[in-house]
Amino acid sequence: MMPPLKRLWEAESRLVVGLMSGTSLDGIDAAVARLSGRGRALQIEQKAFVTVPYPDELRAMLLANSAPDTSSVFDLSQLNVRLAHVYADVVRQAVGAADMALADLDLIGSHGQTVHHIPDATACAGQRITSTLQIGDPSVLANLLGVPVVGDFRVADMALGGQGAPLVPYFDYVYFADESETRGLLNLGGIANLSVLPASGGADEVTAFDTGPANMVMDALARHFFGQSYDTHGALAAQGIISNTLLAQLLADPYFEQSPPKSTGRERYGAPFVKKLLAQAGDLSPHDLLATATMLTVASVYQSYARFFRDHQPLDVLIISGGGRHNDFLLQKLTDSFAPIPVRTVDDYGLDADAKEALCFAVLAHETINGVTTNLPSVTGASRGTLLGKICMPL
C-alpha cells in the first residue's frame, strides 16, 4: 500500500481547501479549489467559497487574547484547539457548498488565527528573537477531518531572519505577474498590504509589505460609535469631513517611514491605537473621525507607493482585494489619490476577490507538498527561500 504522503506528493492535481481568518477577527473564509502545476504554471479552478462569522463569545475571547494585558496561557491553550474544531466545521460547510464529500479532499491549507506578531527582534531570556503565533492547531484539524493539513506557515521564514509576512505576494506573483504591466496588488484586510510586480520580473524582484491599518481601525470606530460591525459601503465615513490636522498627526507614525521589509498587525493598530485616536479626536464628530481614519488608510498606502516605488517602478494599474473593496468611500479616495493610474479589483481578472486570501493558503499548502519555496526573501527579508508550513498527516 502506498504511503499517504507519497500518494499526496505524486498526485497530478489536488482538491484543496484554503482557510483564512485575518486580523479583523470577523470570521473564517474557506475556498475549495482544484489545483495543478506549480509556480507560474499553476492552474486554479475554484469550486466553492464560504465565509463564516465568528460567534460573538469566541470573537471576544480572541480579541482579549490578542492583547498582552488581557491574554492568558489557559485561554490560548484552549483556543488553539477550539479554533481547530471551528475550522473543521467550516471545511465541512465549504465542501458541502462544492457538492463534494470530505473523502474527495486531498489537502487543507490553514493560516490559523494570528494572536501575536513580533517581527522586530526583541529580548527574550538573553537573546533577541522575532516570533509570531497563529492558533488553530493543524494537527488537531487533520485528525478531526481525516485530511492532511499544512499549517503554521510563517515561522519558517522568521527562522531565516524574515518578517514571516506578508505571504500573499507569492500568490500575487503566480497569478498576476505580467510581461508588459507593472502591477500593484493592494489587499485591504484588517491591515493593508501592497505587492508590486515589475513588468516581466521574476519572483526575486517582487516587493511587498504592510502599509499600515485598513479595516481594523475603521471597524473599531464603527463599533464604538454606531454599534455596527463595519461601515457598510463607507456610508458613515462619507457623511464626515476629513480632518487634515489629525491626519497629519497620524501620518507622523514612524512605521510609515520605515523601509521595507516590514509587517504589522493588531499589536500596533489594535485597541491601544484606537483609544489614542479617540483621545486625539477633540471636537470631531464620529462621522468626521471615521472619515479621517479611512483617509489614513488611503494616505498611508499612497505615501508608501510614492516613497518606495513611484520614481523607479511606476505602476500601470492598482488591483484591489480584501474586504475593504466593499467600502465605496475608501475605493473612491484611493481612485482619486492614484489617478491617472487605473484602480481595479481582482474580480476584473477572473478571481473572486473575497476568496483570494483563502485561495492563497490553498496554493501555499499545494506548493509545500510540491517542494516549492514560497516565501519571497525580497519581500520578507529572509536570508533565503524555504518551504513553508508544517505537514500534519492523519491515519
Report on this model:
The protein is α/β, with parallel strands linked by helices and about 400 residues long. The chain folds into 2 domains: about 5-165 and about 355-390, Nucleotidyltransferase, domain 5 (2-Layer Sandwich); about 175-340, 2-Layer Sandwich (Nucleotidyltransferase, domain 5). It is about 40% helix and about 25% strand. It has helices spanning about 5-10, 55-65, 75-95, 140-145, 155-160, 170-175, 215-225, 235-240, 245-250, 255, 265-270, 270-280, 285-310, 330-340, 355-370, 375-380; strands spanning about 15-20, 25-35, 45-55, 105-125, 125-135, 150, 185-190, 190-195, 205-215, 315-320, 345, 390. Helix 7 (about 215-225) packs antiparallel against helix 13 (about 285-310). The radius of gyration is 20 Å and the shape is globular.
SSE topology sketch:
Elements lengths: L3 H7 L2 E9 L5 E10 L6 E11 L2 H9 L8 H25 L9 E18 L2 E9 L2 H8 L3 E3 L3 H5 L8 H9 L6 E6 L2 E7 L9 E7 L1 H12 L8 H4 L5 H7 L3 H4 L8 H4 L1 H10 L5 H23 L8 E5 L6 H11 L4 E3 L10 H15 L6 H4 L9 E3 L3
Helix pairs in contact: 3-4, 7-13, 9-13, 13-14
Summarize the structure.
The protein is 40% helix and 23% strand. The protein is α/β, with parallel strands linked by helices and 395 residues long. β10, α14 and β11 (343-345) form a beta-alpha-beta unit.
Rg for CA atoms: 20 Å
In CATH terms, the superfamily of the largest domain is ATPase, nucleotide binding domain
CATH topology of the largest domain: Nucleotidyltransferase, domain 5
Contiguous uncertain segments of 5+ residues: none
How many domains, in number, for the residues? 2
Count, helices: 16
For the record, the CATH architecture of the largest domain stands as 2-Layer Sandwich
Shape: globular
Just give the CATH class of the largest domain: Alpha Beta
Q: Given the helix and strand composition, which structural class is it?
A: alpha/beta
Major sheet, described briefly?
7 strands, mixed
- For the terminal residues, how far apart are their CA atoms? 13 Å
H/E element sequence: HEEEHHEEHEHHEEEHHHHHHHEHEHHE
What percent of the residues sit in helical stretches (DSSP H or I)? Answer: 25-40%
Number of strands: 12
Q: What is the overall pLDDT average?
A: 96
